[in-house]
Design a protein that fits this description.
Blueprint: H1 2-17, H2 21-33, H3 50-57, H4 77-80, H5 82-100, H6 107-142, H7 152-175, H8 177-183, H9 197-201, H10 214-230, H11 249-255, H12 273-278, H13 301-318, H14 322-330, H15 364-384, H16 391-413, H17 418-440, H18 457-483, H19 488-501
Helix pairs in contact: 1-6, 1-7, 2-6, 6-15, 6-16, 7-8, 7-10, 8-13, 13-14, 15-16, 16-17, 17-18
Keywords: Endoplasmic reticulum, Iron, Lipid metabolism, Membrane, Oxidoreductase, Signal, Transmembrane, Transmembrane helix
Protein name: Alkylglycerol monooxygenase
Membrane topology: Multi-pass membrane protein
Length: 527
């Protein structure tokens, strides 16, 4: 059914692609210039009251407070929810330690998950204007009935429509290999979205353009994503009768299980009713093993984002026959010659809890180092989603942030070149800042090329602190390289041992990862 759904939405996507360049450019330019939601009640720099923000996390929002007439008025709810993400993770960490005298979170896994969340938001900041431009064009040209933007009925219809579309895009992402390549990374954390996911699945929302105003669509895409954050906790076991209607931690645990009975189940975002209606619902039964059936033994977000797409192309190249080559892309991840479209469930390893997980030792000093620089990335993300930067500068800042995330992955993986890569990253920023200051003739730091008129004394002080942190970090990395010049052989042995415990599927094989089998551990910060 997912394949048929793709045919329907592909027609809408093709129509959107036929938009005139002038119209699309106008929409994108408007969205880029208004990315921070100027004039709104709340913004990243003017956050909402505590109870209002908590309501966002649970989709408890009065329709009148989240209905807008123009797309540029819609706040970036997800960016504003960043403090709630971090606070929730901290609370779960404390509660878990108090109950079990140990944490259910692993620091390296949590940092990797949060880094992936940063990456998804960076991608969104760069690509979202183009996605919503296609929807606006479809709405302006194909709308058959214009629902009033300020009606509560429109708001509730939007909630159901967006969640229904999400169910089918989520299901298609598991049953179509090419879409799975953009989605599999999403399965490792509540915050992660694959960088390939946005450009490949936004078309599932285009049929709503027949009636639903673009601002209402944008609002519900935000809240649908925010709701899915809290259902990744292990602290809540059951919500009683609400389990029949809502997607809950118990239901979503099944979705992330690698047990055979969990595979390709419970696709819903906010509501579980779609799974009950279309035969993909599964209640929690045996103890769930969270993880992937063929784990990737790395914390590197760059490798993880693109590992499966590389596997797809290698398999398509190796397999015989054009029909089979196309099937590699459009059948399920578990398909192979002689098997059903979605693969064979018997190919899934029959695992039982407990099961070993990929892990690497991480000193408290290194954990603290990565955490401090992660906080700096959060600040950079807030700047990226504001309207202070020109689009080319946004792209440059995004590239730097992604380089930083890759460096984090190398440090967490204990890769031999990690310290040198991190030192190079820091020095490049310091040198670039010094060069720009000299070119502009400034006596203050010029990070991100902000016009001096837009930089307050407070921001200047923060930039001075940032400069100091970077200098200290450079010194720290030099010391690290001096005391541990090479641990390559040890790293290779450790990696080999870990791969024996959790084998990675061979990318040279003609057999893909079976039946959308990737799942991973689940906590608020890591699924």
């Amino acid at each position: 059914m997912a394949a048929e759904a793709v045919v329907v939405v592909a027609a809408a996507a093709a129509a959107a692609a036929a938009s005139t360049a002038a119209s699309a450019e106008s929409v994108v330019d408007t969205l880029v210039r208004n990315a921070s939601g100027i004039g709104l009640q709340y913004s990243v720099t003017d956050p909402p009251p505590l109870l209002v923000g908590l309501g966002w996390m649970f989709y408890i929002v009065p329709p009148a407070d989240a209905s807008f007439s123009h797309i540029e008025q819609v706040p970036d709810y997800i960016a504003m929810a960043t403090p709630y993400f971090l606070t929730s993770i901290l609370i779960e960490l404390i509660v878990s330690f108090a109950k079990h005298r140990k944490s259910s979170l692993r620091i390296n896994d949590s940092l990797s998950s949060l880094s992936a969340g940063i990456w998804s938001q960076v991608t969104k900041a760069l690509l979202y204007p183009f996605d919503i431009a296609a929807y606006i064009w479809c709405y302006n040209n194909f709308c058959v009935y214009e629902l009033p933007w300020d009606s509560p009925y429109t708001w509730w219809f939007g909630m159901l429509g967006v969640d229904f579309a999400y169910y089918w895009l989520h299901r298609a992402a598991h049953e179509i290999n090419l879409l799975w390549a953009g989605h599999e990374y999403n399965l490792t954390t509540a915050l992660r979205q694959g960088v390939l996911q946005g450009p490949t699945v936004f078309c599932f929302y285009l049929p709503l353009a027949l009636v639903l105003p673009p601002p209402i669509l944008a609002v519900h895409k935000h809240f649908n994503t925010l709701y899915q954050f809290w259902i990744h906790t292990q602290m809540i076991k059951s919500l009683g009768p609400l389990e029949w209607i809502l997607n809950t931690p118990s239901h979503h645990a099944v979705h992330h299980g690698r047990n055979r009975y969990c595979i390709d189940k419970n696709y819903g975002g906010t509501l579980i009713i779609w799974d009950r209606l279309f035969g993909t619902f599964q209640a929690e039964a045996d103890p769930i093993v969270f993880g992937v059936t063929h784990p990737l033994s790395t914390w590197d977000p760059v490798y993880t984002q693109f590992a499966h797409i590389r596997h797809i192309f290698r398999k398509a190249w190796a397999i015989q026959g054009w029909r089979n080559k196309l099937a590699v892309f459009f059948y399920g991840p578990g398909w192979d010659i002689g098997k059903a479209r979605t693969g064979d469930l018997n190919d899934i390893p029959d695992v039982r809890a407990p099961w070993p997980k990929y892990d690497r030792s991480l000193s408290a000093v290194m954990a603290g180092y990565v955490f401090v620089h992660f906080l700096l990335l959060v600040v950079a993300l807030q700047l990226l989603t504001s309207n202070l930067l020109a689009y080319p500068v946004m792209v440059l800042l995004a590239l730097y942030m992604l380089t930083t995330l890759s460096s984090f992955g190398a440090l967490l993986d204990h890769k031999p070149m990690a310290n040198g890569l991190e030192l190079g990253r820091i020095l490049s920023v310091l040198v670039l800042d010094t060069a720009i200051r000299g070119y502009l003739g400034r006596d203050t730091h010029a990070f991100f090329w902000l016009p001096r008129a837009q930089v307050s004394d407070t921001v200047q002080f923060q930039l001075e602190v940032l400069w100091t942190i970077l200098l200290a970090s450079a010194g720290f990395m030099v010391i690290q390289m001096a005391v541990s010049p090479s641990n390559a052989s040890l790293t290779d042995k450790q990696q080999a041992k870990l791969r024996e415990e959790a084998p990675v599927p061979s990318t040279s094989s003609t057999t893909p990862t079976p039946l959308g089998a990737r799942r991973s551990q689940r906590t608020l910060s890591s699924r």
